[in-house]
Q: What sequence folds into this?
């Protein structure tokens, strides 16, 4: 009887291991480096919200910072540096007044997200991107990779080296 029991335990363990590997693969739905080869992660729009920001000046946008599961877990656990596999997305839209909302409020006060502008990604792989702080940088416009100066990305993110080069703080 004993060896039957051992077999059953092994079978269950194998099943659950297989299950967790499968589910994390489908959650990510893409290979970590594919974003840097110009392929938008198919599920990035479903990632978890980390925070929002509004830039004025030439940018004049409203933006959301999103993280994949690995990035968001690190944020919530306060893990620094971010582990390999963490991906952070910065999605931006034009910052536009809303006439419709203003009418409802009875005066001008409302601004909303207009047309998408561009999306930026930071992908953590401490060995592959060792020369840029362990992060790969890339950006997209209208779903396509757009002109990129990785050295400029990295140098502007240098002031937050003590937070693993990431500006965005988690908004609870
Ligand atoms: C002029 C400085 C500057 C440059 C150049 C720059 N960034 Fe950033 N980046 C920031 C600042 C400041 C923030 C946080 C505020 C915000 O989101 O607007 C930020 C936020 C981000 C975020 C969200 C995570 C975080 O660090 O807060 C990503 C992802 C990102 N940038 C990627 C890039 C990529 C990719 C490039 C190059 C194409 C780039 N950045 C170039 C200053 C810069």
A:
């Amino acid at each position: 009887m004993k060896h039957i029991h051992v077999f059953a335990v092994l079978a269950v363990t194998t099943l659950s291991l297989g299950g967790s590997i499968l589910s994390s693969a489908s959650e990510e739905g893409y290979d970590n480096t594919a974003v840097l080869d110009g392929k938008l992660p198919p599920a990035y729009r479903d990632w978890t919200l980390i925070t929002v920001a509004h830039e004025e000046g030439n940018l004049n946008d409203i933006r959301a910072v999103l993280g994949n599961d690995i990035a968001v877990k690190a944020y919530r656990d306060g893990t620094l540096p971010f582990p390999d596999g963490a991906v952070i997305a910065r999605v931006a839209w034009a910052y536009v007044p809303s006439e419709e909302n203003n009418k409802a409020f009875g005066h001008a006060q409302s601004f909303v997200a207009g047309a998408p502008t561009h999306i930026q990604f930071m992908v953590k792989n401490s060995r592959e991107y060792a020369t840029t702080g362990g992060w790969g940088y890339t950006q997209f416009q209208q779903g396509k990779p757009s002109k990129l100066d990785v050295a400029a990305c990295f140098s502007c993110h240098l002031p937050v080296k003590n937070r693993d080069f990431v500006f965005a703080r988690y908004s609870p």
In short: The pocket of heme C is lined by residues 53, 55, 63, 65, 88, 90, 120-122, 137-139, 148, 152-153, 156-157, 166-168 (CB under 6 Å). The two ends are 52 Å apart (CA to CA). Residues 101 and 107 are 9 Å apart (CA to CA).
